Amino acid sequence: MPFERIKEELNRDMYDGLRFSHKVQFCIAILICLSCGATKKFNFFPVQYIAGNSNCVIPIKGERVEVVNSYYREYLLGGSINASSTTFVRGDYIYDIFKWTKEDMSCSEPEGYFIVGKTASQAGPLIAFGISKALMNFATGISADRFGRKPMEAVGWCIGLAMPMVAIFADNFTTFVSAYVLMGIQQGVCWSTSIFIMVDYATKKHSGFAIGLNETVGYTTLAIINVVAPLILDESRPRISMFTVVFGIALVNLIVSIVFLKESKNVIEAETDTPQNSKKEVTLVWPSGSPSYSSVPRAVCAYTTFVSPSLALVCLCGLMNNFVSAVVWSILKIIMKDSTAKGASFEPFTKQEIGNILLFYGLTKGTFQVIFGTLGDTYGRRKFMYGGLYTVALGLFCLAFTTGYAENKTSAAIGFAIGSALAGIGTSVMYTNLLAAVCDFSEPSWRSSALGVYRFWRDLGYAVGAYLSGVLADNIGIYATFLVDATLIFLVATCVALFYKDPKKKISLSSQDDLSTPLVSREHEMSRASLLEVSDEI
C-alpha cells in the first residue's frame, strides 16, 4: 500500500535519523505553530462583534407598502414633517423610507462597538493583517537566513504581546485595525520561522511531510478554536475576553523561544556542500556577455515571482488559497451574522452556530494537510494543486447557491456547512503541496528566502480577497460575490492544469559549481545554450 511505504520511508529516513535533541526542537516548532493557529482564530473570531452594522437598525421588508401609506397619510398630508424629509417616527421606531430601514429607539449598542456600514470596511482588520503578514513573510525569509531562526521567534512573540493591548484599549476603528497590523507581523515572523525550523530538521526530501505536519497542527488548532471561542466570548465585552487569552499565549511562547528553542540554521549546512551565506551577491550573465549583479534575496524574489513559470503559478495559487480564507472568514461570517441586513431570507446565526459552520472549513483544511503533503512528496505536486483549486471553486458555488436560495436557517446551515467543507478540503489538498513545491525548486542556502517570497504572495491573498469581495458585496450583493470568486478560482485552476510542470529533477549544487541560485552563473560567461539547459532542468 502507498501509505505503508510512505510511513516506512519516513521512519527510516527522517524520524529515526534525528538525534534526540533534534526531535525535541522539532516538537517545540510544532508547539509554536499550534500557538500561532490558536492566536490567529482568537484574534479574528470576535471582529464581527466589535465592528459592523448597527444592531439597532433593521431593514424594512414586507411592511414597505404599509410604511409608505402611513408616511403619506399621517405626515405628508397631516403636515407633521417637511415634505423633503424621508424619516418619521412610528411607535418605538424611526423609519427611513429612503434607506428602507427602521431604528429601534430603545436599543443600545454593546460597549466599545464600532458601527461600520460598508462590507469592505468591516473587512479592514483582515486586509491590514494580510498586507502586513505578506510583507513580513518576505522579510522573515531573508532575515532567518541571515540572523537565524531563534532570534526571529523571540522578536515575533514580543510583537505578539503588543497586539492584544492595542486591540483592548483602541477607542476608534482605525486604531483597532492597526492592532491587526501587529498581528500580521507576529504571524509572519513566528509561523514562517516554525516552518523553516521543521524543514531544517526534516530535510528537503521530506519537506512535504514537515510542512504538512506544521500546517495540519496549526489549522486543526485554529478549527478547534471555532468551538472554544464562542464559549469564551462575552458579546457585551468581546475585546477583554478574547485578547486576554491572546496575551497569555504570546507570553508563554516568548518564554519558550528564549529559554528552550535552539538555533537550527547550522543543521541545513549538512544538506549541501555550499556553506550557508557563502555568496552575498550573484552574477547574471546575459547572452550578450554583459553581466548584472544582484543580492541573493533580490535574485530569489525575481526568480520565484517572474522567471520560473511554474513557481509564478505556485505564487498565484498561494494568493488564491488565502483569497478563499478571506472570503470564508469575512463575507461568509457577515452573511451569517447579519443575514437580515444583507437581504437574505433566513434568520441570523448565533455565535455558536457561526463557530460550528466555520469548524467545517477549518477542520477539513487542517486535518488532511499532512496526508496530501506526504502524498505530494511521492506523486508530485501538480494534480494536488489544480485538484484542490477545482474543489474550492465547487465549495464557493455551493455557498453562492445557499445565499441566494436558502429559505430558512436549517437549509442555510446545511448549505454553508457543505460549501465550507468543500472549500476546506480543496485548500488542504493544495496548501502543503504549494509550500513543498517551492522547496522542490530551491536549494537549502536560499530556501527560506524562496519560501518567504511565496508566503508574501500567498498571504497577500487575505488582503486581496477581503477587499475585492467586500467591494463586490457592497455593489452587486453577496450572492453574486460568491459566484465571481468561484469563477476566478476555477480559471486559475485551469491555468495550473495546463501550464504548471513539476521539476524533472531536484537542482543539485556542489562546491565546485558555486551557484547560489539557479539564476547565478559562474565567473565565466554563460552561453545561450547553457541558459536554456538550466531552464529545461528546472
**Series of H and E elements:** HHHEEHEEEEHHHHHHEEHHHHHHHHH
Enumerate the spans where pLDDT stays under 50 for 5 or more consecutive residues. Answer: 506-538
Q: Indicate the CATH topology of the largest domain.
A: Growth Hormone, Chain: A
Radius of gyration: 26 Å
The level of helicity is 55-70%
CATH architecture designation of the largest domain? Up-down Bundle
Outline the structure in words.
By secondary structure, this protein is mainly alpha-helical. It has two domains: 2-40 and 114-270 and 298-499, Up-down Bundle (Growth Hormone, Chain: A); 57-104, no CATH class. The protein has helices at residues 2-15, 20-44, 47-50, 64-76, 119-122, 124-147, 149-169, 173-202, 207-232, 238-259, 296-307, 309-337, 351-367, 369-379, 382-405, 409-440, 447-476, 478-499, 528-537, and strands at residues 51-52, 57-59, 87-90, 93-96, 101-104, 114-115, 281-285, 291-295. The strands form three sheets. The protein has a four-stranded antiparallel β-sheet with strand order 2-5-4-3, with helices on one face. Mean pLDDT is 82; it is low at 506-538.
Task: Describe the secondary-structure layout.
Elements: H1 2-15, H2 20-44, H3 47-50, E1 51-52, E2 57-59, H4 64-76, E3 87-90, E4 93-96, E5 101-104, E6 114-115, H5 119-122, H6 124-147, H7 149-169, H8 173-202, H9 207-232, H10 238-259, E7 281-285, E8 291-295, H11 296-307, H12 309-337, H13 351-367, H14 369-379, H15 382-405, H16 409-440, H17 447-476, H18 478-499, H19 528-537
Helix pairs in contact: 2-8, 2-9, 2-10, 6-8, 6-17, 7-8, 7-10, 8-9, 9-13, 9-14, 9-16, 11-12, 11-17, 12-13, 12-15, 12-16, 12-17, 12-18, 13-16, 14-16, 15-16, 15-18, 17-18
